Amino acid sequence: MPDYVLAADIGGTNVRVARVSSTGRISHHKRVLTPPAGGVAVVDALATLLEQIPRTGVGAIGVDVPGLAYNNGDVWAPNIRGWKRMPLGVRLQERLHLPVVVESDRNAFVVGEAWKGTTRNCRNVVFLAVGTGIGAGILADGRLLRGHGELAGSVGWMAVRDRYLPQYAKTGCLESHAAGPGIGLAARRLLRRNISAPEVARLAAQGDRRAQLILERAGHYLGLALANLVSTLNPEMIVVGGGVAEEGGLLLKTARETMMRWAQPIAVRQVRLVRSELGDAASLLGVAKLALDATRNSGHTLFENAAVSSQHVDFRRRRKSTVGGSPA
Fold this sequence. Notes:
The protein is an alpha/beta fold.
């Protein structure tokens, strides 16, 4: 295993990079705005940032993206222009001459939390990211749950109402009501002014009853989704993170109450619902862990398949730097 890997988190707003040690220490953190032009401009900005980090002892690169990572390292990211099938893994490998692992941000989040966060020593975990969108990373018996087309965890599309609305075709039912843009839209309709989800949360904290009602409604829908996840997956822990989750105490309070009422009664008594302790660091740590594991499991100098080695996560108990699982 190398001493270090380079980790990168690509979002619709920012591109963040860092060097991460094999024990999970983050250093050389850098950030730039995501180029609005999209396309190869985002790849160039990322590669330029990575080139600024010392390479001594670095054995691989791990990158997470806000969308779908295909097994060949191609990426679909709907909130980055021109990324319908961006060959991110190949482009980075050609420029930086290091093995590259490409992963979805939701999977990076749950792996980061399981490695160094709240869910250490847990094998059945859901990380629910609630921000501009909504997605979930899922560990089942210590393995990432991916689905047939790498789309497991797309919980923003979960149906939490019985009446279909046209906007669901683009963003999904849950995301339309409980993510940041959905909360902002509900607030604009009720308050009749342009307002964002964080501003709604601040008004609610100050006692504005209309703002509180908006968050309670969004929290109810989020709680229904949590109840479905608990009843379907029977996790030990659900970690909630993302910008909206960090701002919305009332939203999470209502979500917890709804989850407790609607979920399978035995399963809901077994689960802990907590906020993320790692914040933004979770995704960098998660994709670094996947890159470290991929490097150990591959004999290639350069991966022939950029993302293939991220198909499983090694969580063996005998390694102090990993989380619980069956002894190797």
